[in-house]
Amino acid sequence: MLSLKSMTTEQTLIGFFIAINLFTFLVMANDKRKSRQKGEVGRIPEGLIFFMAATLGSVGVLAGMYILRHKTRKWYFQLGIPLLIVQNLATLYLLATMLGVSYF
Questions:
Q1: Among residues 9, 19, 40, 74, which one has the fewest Cβ atoms lying within 10 Å of its Cβ?
Q2: Element (DSSP H or E) covering residue 79
Q3: pLDDT per position as a tens digit, 22-75
Q4: What is the DSSP letter of 69?
Q5: DSSP state of 1
Q6: Contacts 24+ apart (CB under 8 A), 81-88
Q7: Tell me, what DSSP letter sits at residue 39?
């Protein structure tokens, strides 16, 4: 069993990134499910989806857009999410260099 103490900084950073993106994908799936029901009750606000994308979850949102076909007609999602992927990669690079990860 892998413990947190034996994980390297790289493994922790990658695991954190995967967990955030999995969570944002599940949020997109939940919003897609709720969008098929009548009314706006319980829908996830688009601003919250963009916030999650900006906080390292853009890959999960993009996957949700194209796998679930959710929010793909909105121009600001088509433009904004790929730009946030670039921002997420820059943030990961900054975090990696600050933490001393050499191969990023």
A1: 40
A2: helix 75-98
A3: 999 999 999 999 988 877 788 999 999 999 999 999 999 999 999 999 999 999
A4: T
A5: -
A6: 81/53, 84/50, 84/53, 84/54, 84/58, 85/58, 85/59, 87/54, 87/58, 88/53, 88/54, 88/56, 88/57, 88/58, 88/59
A7: S
